[in-house]
Amino acid sequence: MRSARSVLLALFTAGIATASPAEGRAFLDKYCVSCHSGTKPAAGFNAREIAAPNAPDTDTYRWGRVLARVRANEMPPRSAPAPTVDEREKFVSWADGALHAEACSNGAVAGPIPIRRLNRDEYTATIRELLNVHQDAGHDLPADGAGGEGFDNAAEVLTLSPLLAEKYRDAAKRTLEFAIRDSRARARIGIAEPSRTLTPTAAARHVLDGFLPRAFRRPATDSEKQAFLALFQAAQREHLDFDHSVVFMLRGVLMSPRFLFLSVPPNPGAAARPLDDYALASRLSYFLWGSMPDEMLFDLASLGKLHEPEVLHEEIGRMLRSGKSMGFVESFTGQWLGTRNLGRDLTPDAKLFPKYASDAELRADIGFQPAVFFHTLLSTNAPITELLDSNWTILTKKLAALYGFDLKKLPKELDEQPKRIELPPHSHRGGVLGMSAVLAVSSYPYRTSPVLRGKWVLESILGAPPPPPPPDVPRLEEHADTQPATMRERLARHRADPACAGCHSRIDPIGFALENYDALGQWRTDDAGKPLDNTGILPDGASFAGPDELRALLMKRKDLFLRSFTSRMLGFALERGLTLKDRCAVDAILAQLSENGYKSQTLIEGIVMSPVFRYQAGSAK
Amino acid sequence: MRCRVRYTGRVFRRICLFAVLASALHASGVSGIWTGQLKEPDRDPQDLSFRFTEASGSVSGKMYGDNESTPLKDLKIEGDKITFTVTTELNGSVNKFTFSGVIRENEMELRRERESSSKGKDENPGPTLVLRRVA
Q1: ipTM
Q2: Does residue B67 share a domain with residue B6?
Q3: Which of A252, A290, A323, B115 sits most deeply, having the most CB atoms within 10 A of its CB?
Q4: Is the domain of B102 the same as that of B64?
Q5: Is A302 in CB contact (< 8 Å) with chain B?
């Protein structure tokens, strides 16, 4: 999806600007062929010979690389003549659009389902379900990095190094030794006590009969059971007692790739095929719960009914209404909005924001607000567009005080529990843009940053992050030290540099509109002792003042947000980065959303019912 | 040969008749997974799901839970009437619920009545729920 960044940025700020095929080819001739042609073209890429992006035999991989490098200002290199911003964007828009049209000529089709490890959060949640132990089994595992569409469940990053395998081994050992002493966990594991009529081996076999299918998330074969039973027998030969022999056996299960990895059997045929019901159950549960399937999903899979559209429809509703969906909501919103970093990589300055530093409840309320808002939106099937602007939000007593609400005038009495509250007019708190967590992660710890906030809106809301700044650009703070000024004045000096103006004329105005919120999201009307100027003008002449008008502008251009949000959610659901062909699925889901008033459950259902979620591509050449 | 063809045809017709009867019996029976929402005043609707299994002329069942299922007890089906009980325990508090109602093809209309260990049977009529067979 990132190949569309520049196009979206242009669409948001200046309307559609697309090169004609002749102009696209002329761009290549003017800026690329001097190096990328002849008998030894640079990087093996011959710009004269590559077929047009919408040609049936075009090299989509190569075009993807061209787009990525041109879009990121990496090509042409600094030593060569550079295209203007408009030329660059028109070229990217043309190539991107042509590739999209070619990729979608057959509609949405199944893509790859790469094998991947359970990430730390999924491991913790799965162990909790599997063993009924309420401890953080993944506490000592390292945090997983983000990949794919920006999430830590992406297959691209979920590999297993020998060092990490040792960490998983230690986690399994520690958790099982706790579980074997806990009556609830013993019941969940299905520990059978040996007796006169039940030999220890038969009792261990009984444990495996119940435990292994749940751990592997599918029926286990006899040979699989036999392999783990051999571990039990080996432990018995070493004179371990029954319980410790079972622990040794189950450690083997929890270290098995069939438990630690999510995978589907390979599809050797040429044609795509539906996932089997057990694989579908896991796909659903790790998408909507971040954990293993429950007993009902397993039962539906065992009956071969889960794939039926009516059953899937019912299950999506049930799963979203379940409290377990908070796992999905917290993970998705925290990573989509970047609010997961609050209190980790970024903490508001304790001297400037003592309330935040001293009040753990307030910190928790700020952190939970976006996730509870999104959970409420999903469970009430409210439109996705309410993430941009809404006449309600989630408040606690402390959050309401932070936002300056008169508690007596709010329609509900507030306490420490988060509640949905209908907002009074001109509250400036509708949607995610009025939330403290969002405004804090798009600021520095000690001050706001229109640049960070503008970039945040372009990236998180519109899916069009600006290209990275050119090298050797001094940091804004270095200017600030020499001459005190308002943020707007300091940025105006920054934009005076032509090298910066191209992008900052689009980034900064969006950030200016949010300047009424301080670095913790509290409302303010002045900056550095001067009245605050919250106006902004985009290069296409669109002007606005303050967050409410920015919200209105974003709502007018909601199609960009919906495409970006749908792409991010699809990437999260598929647990990998999206390919060019996945964009056809995004198109189909967007059409359904439009027909159904942008209802949030339509988005989830559209993703689950899409061939890219339920089918597996063939692997035969 | 003619005789053999006639014999095969008779067997086939009997198999078909048996299949139709078996199918009708299944459709009108209770086997399967049923789901519905319990709606009570001033409370969020609560999803409830059950699985009924018929084997060797008897019926058993379970109620799905967040973590594990609970077996249905005292399960009785007489004509289209069904009753059963579910006993749950949460933080040491034991609650017994009686479900009773009627089965109509793929729908089951039930009333849930609560009997708590400390207060005895609730005097107010319990909430109703409509279960639909999903599988």
Answers
A1: 0.81
A2: no
A3: A290
A4: yes
A5: no
